[in-house]
C-alpha cells in the first residue's frame, strides 16, 4: 500500500443558510463548508414537506391531451 496518498482529514465547520452550524471531519483544506440545506431545515427531516405545484402541470397536460378516463 502506498503511503502519503490520502488527503489530510481535518475538523470542519459546516454552516447552512438557515444559520445552523455543526462540526464534522472532512478533507476540505479550508475547514469550512457552506451548504444551502441541512438536516435542520430540509423538509424531509423536519416533516414539513410541501407539495410542489404539480397540479398546474397535470391540469395543463389534461387540457392539452384530454382526459380519457
Automatic annotation (TrEMBL):
One MF term in the entry's GO annotations: rRNA binding
Residue numbers binding Zn(2+): 16, 18, 38, 41
Keywords: Metal-binding, Ribonucleoprotein, Ribosomal protein, RNA-binding, rRNA-binding, Zinc
InterPro entries, A to Z: Ribosomal_bL28/bL31-like_sf (IPR034704), Ribosomal_bL31 (IPR002150), Ribosomal_bL31_A (IPR027491), Ribosomal_bL31_sf (IPR042105)
Biological processes annotated in GO: translation
Note describing how the cofactor binds: Binds 1 zinc ion per subunit.
RNA-binding in keyword set: yes
Short name of one Pfam family: Ribosomal_L31
Cofactor dependency: Zn(2+)
Domain of life: Bacteria
Assigned GO CC terms: ribonucleoprotein complex; ribosome
Family classification: Belongs to the bacterial ribosomal protein bL31 family. Type A subfamily.
Subunit organization: Part of the 50S ribosomal subunit.
Function of the molecule: Binds the 23S rRNA.
Record protein name field: Large ribosomal subunit protein bL31
Amino acid at each position: 500500500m502506498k503511503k502519503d496518498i490520502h488527503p489530510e482529514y481535518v475538523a470542519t465547520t459546516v454552516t447552512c443558510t438557515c444559520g445552523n452550524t455543526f462540526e464534522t471531519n472532512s478533507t476540505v483544506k479550508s475547514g469550512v463548508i457552506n451548504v444551502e440545506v441541512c438536516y435542520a431545515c430540509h423538509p424531509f427531516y423536519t416533516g414539513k414537506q410541501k407539495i410542489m405545484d404539480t397540479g398546474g402541470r397535470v391540469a395543463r397536460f389534461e387540457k392539452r391531451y384530454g382526459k380519457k378516463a
